[in-house]
Design goal:
There is one protein chain. This protein is α/β, with parallel strands linked by helices. Helices cover about 45% and strands about 15% of the residues. The strands form 2 sheets. An 8-stranded mixed sheet has the order 5-2-1-6-7-8-11-12, with helices on both faces. Strands 4-3-10-9 form a 4-stranded mixed sheet. Helix 3 runs parallel beside helix 4. The longest helix is centred in the middle third of the chain and has 18 residues. The chain is globular, with a radius of gyration of 19 Å.
Length: about 350
């Protein structure tokens, strides 16, 4: 790609964090602690007030500190900025991107620090050349205004959508290393995003129950469902000619090969990774069981379903998973093991 003329401004300040909850608040808090100037943007006025007052508290087993900085609601935004890290839920991506667009410089960039294939939505609005891909797998939960629990470290990856190495992606990589020293710069960002989409299928299925992620993963009754669901999503990635990449113990190549020994090893590593953390359950489960609000499952899996439709690939497990989550959101079904049993019942006997 042709690097935008303001590529070197990726290192400029302030860095705008649009959506300062679990993901954005944690990253922004670390950047502030490292001395970078950050402008936090969030729709919750009480959260904005706490951050402005210097009372953004990061707690949990990974780290504990208090910081803060300039913070506003979207309505109070002004000026234009070269770098905006978007960290809202997937189903808020379109609205948030349209809201931030007037505040992005012509040669600036939006970085999708989210779960899902949201880069596709962002690029449609701001332009592909102003969109940077990012993959995050660390675990954090927004607890209340001014407080975020950082439960477990995880992979952080950035890359240009076309895989090129540019000054702006190198500068962004160095910036994110202030948060996660092991952050990766990649030429295959969609490989990580599709890898997360398939691993995310496990997390979404676990949210049908009250089990912890680790307990769900090691439950032998769930093994056929886990394997079939991951392979179903990976089949779509393959049709898209994407090579999914692994992270934090997840090995998509093992699932693609249907290598049972390697799958067992991957699942054991994933169980260990998720065991004993400050985030034992997924954010999806938390939205359903604690916050009683709509999840972003439908939005996260919509690009998978759309790609499957384009390639003529059936995705019965993904489709039913979305339906079950929607039923919980609407109050028609309740979280419980019977929902996972129902989804698992769609897996052909082997």
């Amino acid at each position: 790609m042709t690097d935008p003329t303001a590529s070197d401004l990726i290192g400029a300040e302030p860095i705008v964090i649009w959506g300062s909850g679990a993901i954005g608040g944690t990253i922004g808090g670390y950047l502030r602690r490292a001395g970078r100037e950050v402008l936090f943007v969030d729709v919750v006025p009480e959260h904005v007030d706490e951050i402005s007052a210097g009372r953004l508290r990061i707690d949990g087993p990974v780290d504990q500190f208090t910081t803060g900085g300039a913070a506003v609601t979207p309505e109070a935004m002004s000026a234009r900025y070269p770098l905006i890290l978007l960290a809202v839920k997937a189903h808020h991506t379109e609205a948030a991107t349209r809201a931030l667009l007037p505040f992005l410089t012509e040669d600036g960039a939006v970085v999708s620090c989210q779960n899902g294939l949201n880069e596709l939505v962002i690029a449609e609005i701001v332009g592909r050349e102003r969109t940077i891909g990012a993959f995050v797998n660390f675990g954090a939960d927004y607890q209340e205004p001014g407080r975020i629990t950082y439960g477990v470290r995880g992979a952080v990856v950035v890359g240009e959508l076309d895989g090129s190495s540019t000054p702006r992606i190198r500068a962004l990589h160095e910036t994110l290393r202030l948060f996660e020293p092991a952050a990766v710069m990649t030429d295959n960002i969609f490989g990580y995003l599709w890898g997360k989409a398939s691993y995310g299928g496990i997390l979404k299925a676990s949210a049908l129950t009250n089990d912890t992620i680790s307990a769900f993963i090691v439950d032998v009754r769930r093994r056929p469902l886990i394997v079939a669901l991951v392979r179903e999503i990976l089949s779509v990635a393959s049709a898209e000619k994407v090579t999914p990449l692994g992270f934090d113990g997840f090995d998509p190549a093992a699932f693609l090969r249907n290598d049972h020994a390697a799958i067992d090893a991957s699942i054991a590593t994933l169980a260990a990774y998720n065991n004993g953390t400050g985030k034992p359950r997924s954010g999806i489960w938390r939205d359903l069981a604690i916050r009683k609000r709509q999840t972003d499952v439908t939005a996260q899996l919509a690009p998978v379903q759309a790609a499957a439709w384009r390639h003529g690939i059936a995705t019965p497990l993904v489709d039913r998973l979305v339906q079950l989550i929607q039923a919980i959101e609407a109050g028609r079904r309740e979280i419980g093991t019977e929902l996972a049993d129902e989804l698992g019942g769609l897996v052909p006997a082997t």
